Amino acid sequence: MFFSKLKNSALASGILYSALFIACSNSYADVEAEKTTSSTADHSKFEILQEQFATGPDVTKACLSCHTEASKQLHKTKHWNWTFTNPDTGQEVGKKSIINNYCLAINKNYARCTSCHIGYGWKDKDFDFTSQENVDCLVCHDTTDTYKKFPTAAGHPTYKDKAFPKGSKKIWKAPDLSHIAQNVGPPRRENCGACHFYGGGGDGVKHGDLDSSMTNPDKQLDVHMGVDGLNFTCTECHSTDGHDIKGSRFNITAKDTHGIDIPGRDDHSRASCESCHGMTPHPETINNKINDHTDKVACVTCHIPTYARGGVATKMWWDWSTAGKKDADGKLIKMKNDKGQLTYFTKKGSFTWGQDLVPEYDWLSGNIRYKQLDEKIDPGQVVALNTFSGSYDDPDARIWPFKIMRGKQPYDKVNNTLTLLHLFGKEKTAYWKSYNWNSAIKAAMDEAQANYSGEYGFIETTLHWPLAHMVAPKEQSLSCGECHSKEGRLANLTDFYLPGRDNNKWLDIIGWLAVFGTLGGVSLHGLIRYFFAKRRRKQ
Amino acid sequence: MSRVIMYSGFERFWHWALAVLILILLLTGFNIHGTYHIVSFEQAVNIHIITSWLLMGLLVFTLFWHMVTGEWKQYIPSSTNKLMAMMKYYALDIFLGGGHPHHKTRQSKLNPMQRMAYLSLHIAITPVTWISGLLYLYYPYWDNIGIGSWSLGMIAFVHTAAAFAMLAFLIVHLYLALTTSEERLGYLKAMLHGYEKE
Question: Which CATH number fits domain B3-197: 3.40.1180.10, 3.40.50.920, 2.60.120.430, 1.20.950.20?
Fold first, then answer.
């Protein structure tokens, strides 16, 4: 009896303890496991996915047999169209039309650029945007990490093992499409990262706050996405509605006064800090100045102390004007610095790179515009490829952190316009075939039906990238003195009075004159008193 | 001449509390201003805000004390003649060892120049510092009281100007308080133990 009681209580406490243990060790791994099993469908059990697929579009057809509306949804998105009408400006933007200072634009370079298109076969300007089967489901929904779009196949993966770069020993394996189709799931960081971490031609090149270190970041690198912390996927914030993904730099929400999103009255977008944290996110203390700053300072300005700090460098300068040099044997030249970063390549020109970089800051309220191909530029000035509104007096503007990509790129010397550049392809006009600027520019301009005079020069340009990722843990956020000081981070934003940085020069001069004058006055007064008193004592 | 309690316990308390608070406010204020960097900007702002609330609290009590005890009358300006005599004393007689024109008593602690100086401190420098300081502290809410178009630079100018005035005042105050008593450091001692000859 006694023993059975003891046994029972031992059993009971054992259960209790294990329950407690489970409750306490409800680790992120468990949450992750729960997430991936939250689906009500096991795709490996669908017969249609068990066939051997010859091509990507064949997989899509199988997907569409159940997900009948999926392609139609995607046809409405920026991811598919690469074009977007900014509702603020009415301007047509998107990767299809904007010009950057990396590889300039997609015209004539389709098959290379569209290896990051969520479709199959966009190899020239006649791509059929109404095709349902040419939507690539797998690039976003693969969970096996074996699906890869081939770099030069217009969005297709390779269907037989193939070397890339051509003639190299790096073999790209043909993916097992059937296996991948049976293992689809919600997009993970790997899926989004496959394109967004590698934009501009390589790891970390483009954004600065997005690179392969964000695939499995720790929370020091990104407090939300850290695998040792909240372990957010991209879509946790970039929420989706019918495959339309929120949070685009083309019409950025510089200040989300909407605050915390509540079902029923939210803006269906969690792609702002305020969506979860509200406009007064800091604990209220007697010094409530930090909450007071949210009207004029974007959260990321203080909470991204530096960017490109995951160990992957980002490109800061790209000078096309030096491209085309070959060595004595007529071979392409590749130069690297002591960090192993490419600093010169015949195909592309000269570069500089940076890591752990302090952002540049500017007022941003929105109204982001991209320089159009037919817009005049001033060849005497550095040309801003994108501009935006914002100032201290603009109530919708806040100070934002930016990566500013700088470089030199070709322009039309007679028309004073930007130009495009045919880089990739088998045709002779491709710069990477013949290294002839004129024919490369002309071919791309002709394709865009743009006017090219035949005379090119090189012009310095800037491209602003608002930073929103690599949010550091709060302990690493900026201290007040980073900006509130004479040579601080905001030294260039001079359209307002910043305590600690600014003062009225005349007030300081007159003030200190008054103070030291008073000090001198009383000292003199005292000295004279001392002198007279001494004389009186002598007498 | 008799030794009387010239400064009551409360007076001594508020004098020294005020002294400490004003010193901290000046030190942290010029730290915020960027004149030097003894502590970080954030620490300076934290201390400045806490100290300013303590100061405002103290001054509310003190104002109440002055009203209830009638001590506010000590600040009523003297006649111009008396003021001129006082000025003549500081400008001339003090060197020659002449007699002080004011006889300090419990009822009339302040000489005509002190009356003038402290009155201007109370009705000019202090309120200007308070109002500009509070506006400075609550600048994001200016829109709510209809002064959204005011510039922070202007408010900072006024606040800093008041700080310079306070610092200059402090220098003169220290000079006179520490060097003009008959007994060596007599005024300082009186402000510590309260007793002074009447």
Answer: 1.20.950.20
